[in-house]
Write a structure and sequence with these properties.
- It contains 19 helices and 17 strands.
- With about 550 residues, the protein is α/β, with parallel strands linked by helices.
- It has 3 domains: about 150 residues, no CATH class; about 200 residues, Mur-like, catalytic domain (UDP-N-acetylmuramoyl-L-alanine:D-glutamate ligase, 3-Layer(aba) Sandwich); about 120 residues, Protein-Tyrosine Phosphatase, Chain A.
- The strands form 3 sheets. The protein has a 9-stranded mixed sheet with strand order 4-5-3-6-7-8-9-10-11, sandwiched between helices. Strands 12-13-17-14-15-16 form a 6-stranded mixed sheet, sandwiched between helices. A two-stranded antiparallel sheet has the order 1-2.
- Helix 3 runs antiparallel to helix 4, helix 5 runs antiparallel to helix 6 and helix 8 crosses helix 14.
- The chain is globular and about 90 Å long.
- About 45% of the residues are buried.
């Protein structure tokens, strides 16, 4: 009987550990194998509403008690009025019971509690995923295999030391730490694996020999890239890195799979999570023209300071003979003198700075293109395009030899970039702004200004989970975002718990809340009518609370 019990317990322990692995492997994959991601998101799920809030900023009804944490969306008797309730915090319960069992040296009880923790926690972080499922790539399989070996070693050590089930307890509770360690240990191996594709990409660039345009920036990279493809595409052989393929793996893959003979221009989007990454990309994909669109608090949680972000973006200029800068950005406006001192040609672009070499001046509903002080054209402003991004794209095309007059004509036909302030009118007559791709403070302000400028007579609604990856600034930025929504006379619908406290504190009374974006969209479709407008601002994947 005892043997059967222990066999059943072993199976349950394995199930609890497997459930934890499935959850945190998905987080790790979604966060691009950042080793610290499981720990960071464990913190978010343990205390999501106050992740970036200081104690004085918290409302009284959001302070944790022993067995409950933070508000969650419920339903009142009226289906269109969400109310708040406190979700039961199972993680805290299991942790409390575990401490009790460990104090009394009850290893079987500790193992059973660990199984319950493994199967149920964090509550809300699903095993399979709703917006993004776990994909068993080669890299994920290698990380999972090493983490499994470590877990088995913990179990064996526990039994060898006479601690019986304590090793299994440690294996379940330490999954985020083990994945962190495993990912770090495998980084040299992954770098070696990637080097094969990098070498092939370097060789391909040498064979085709296109002019390389490298684009980076805290935001605006993809939009500028897409605009440049449209400005050049019909008139030159142009290949661009697809989607947001902006790291070593994505960029080398784009070159190896898409760079064909006869390509004149290759446009490489380059992203970074820290210093040295862009320098590495440029070492094997050296740019003829480097473009920097903006410096802002994106990935601030990882890079800690704006100075670090600026230094990381500056790396793209080191090998480039020509640099295009958005000088509407106050940090980038300080770069030209030092770059020119280093012998580089600097072309400035923007919308506000009158001294910019290429300027897209906004005049109410019209744009005027100005190149080297001369007016080229004036025309109705295209919807869903940011003038600074267009100015940067125009500057690159101009450097590549295109006529400003010809380029001005092409600007009028620029297509909206997916999920970036796209404006459409639904069959119901509701005007919808889709700005669900990676919001940041600046783009959020622009989206709100766009909502305010719409010619609608009815309600204006903002549906948002807020902005993330802002480090210690996250609470304040979301507070300011909600205050701006209120100041414009718009309604606010908060999705998920990640930034709920800050958004509610900034907006005040009358906030609607939903657990998932689909619920908020369903409410908007039911409640809004002809003459109303809704802005969908940002969309977080479901590994965020």
């Amino acid at each position: 009987m005892k043997l059967i019990f222990e066999l059943v317990l072993a199976i349950l322990v394995a199930a609890g550990w497997a459930a934890q692995m499935a959850r945190w492997l998905r987080v790790l994959q979604r966060e691009h194998y950042d080793p610290s991601a499981p720990f960071r998101f464990l913190g978010r799920w343990s205390a999501p509403a106050v992740r970036s809030a200081s104690a004085p900023n918290l409302r009284r009804d959001t302070r944790p008690s022993m067995f409950s944490f933070f508000p969650k969306v419920g339903r009142s008797k009226r289906s269109d009025e969400p109310r708040e309730r406190r979700p039961f915090n199972f993680s805290l319960l299991w942790a409390s019971l575990l401490v009790i069992f460990l104090l009394f040296r009850l290893d079987v009880g500790a193992a059973l509690v660990s199984v319950l923790y493994g199967l149920t926690s964090p509550a809300g972080l699903s095993l399979r995923g709703r917006t993004s499922k776990l994909v068993w790539t080669r890299r994920l399989r290698v990380v999972a295999a090493l983490a499994t070996v470590v877990a088995l070693a913990l179990v064996v050590l526990g039994f060898v030391a006479g601690a019986r089930w304590y090793g299994t307890v440690l294996a379940i509770w330490s999954v985020p730490a083990v994945l962190d360690l495993s990912t770090r240990c495998l980084e040299p191996y992954e770098a070696h694996q990637a080097q094969r594709f990098v070498a092939r990409a370097r060789q391909r660039l040498g064979q085709v020999h296109p002019r390389v345009v490298a684009i980076t920036g805290s935001y605006g990279k993809t939009s500028t890239k897409n605009h440049l493809v449209e400005l050049l595409g019909p008139y030159a052989e142009v290949v661009a890195s697809p989607k947001s393929f902006n790291n070593r793996a994505g960029l080398s893959r784009a070159i190896n799979e898409h760079l064909v003979d006869g390509t004149r221009v290759f446009i490489a989007e380059m992203g970074t999570y820290g210093p040295g990454e862009i320098r590495d990309l440029c070492s094997w994909c050296p740019p003829d023209i480097a473009v920097v669109t903006a410096i802002g608090p994106v990935h601030l949680e990882r890079m800690k300071t704006l100075e670090t972000i600026e230094a990381a973006k500056h790396e793209i200029t080191e090998r480039a003979p020509v640099v295009v800068l958005n000088v509407d950005d106050e940090r980038l406006a300080r770069w030209p003198d030092s770059l020119r001192h280093d012998g580089k040609r600097v072309v400035t672009a923007g919308s506000l700075d009158e001294r910019a070499d290429v300027r897209v001046r906004v005049e109410q509903s019209h744009w005027t293109i100005i190149v080297e002080g001369a007016v080229v054209a004036t025309f109705p402003a295209p919807l869903s395009a940011q003038p600074t991004n267009v100015a940067c794209a125009l500057a690159v095309a101009w450097v590549l030899g295109e006529s400003p007059a010809d380029l001005a004509g092409r600007v009028t036909t620029l297509q909206p970039v997916d999920s970036r302030q796209n404006v459409v009118t639904a069959p119901s007559g509701v005007v919808v702004i889709d700005d669900t791709f990676n919001a940041n403070p600046q783009s959020a302000r622009a989206a709100l200004d766009l909502l305010a400028s719409l010619d609608v007579a009815g309600r204006r609604v903002v549906v948002t989970p807020g902005i993330v990856e802002l480090g210690r600034q996250q609470y304040q930025e979301n507070l300011l975002l909600a205050r701006r929504v209120a100041a414009l006379g718009c309604e606010l619908v908060v999705v998920s718990r990640t930034n709920a406290v800050a958004l509610m504190a900034g907006f005040g009374e009358g906030v609607r809340r939903f657990d998932e974006r689909d619920e908020a969209v369903a409410w908007a479709r039911k409640s809004l009518h002809d003459g109303d407008a809704v802005l969908y601002l940002n969309d977080l994947p479901d590994h965020y609370p």
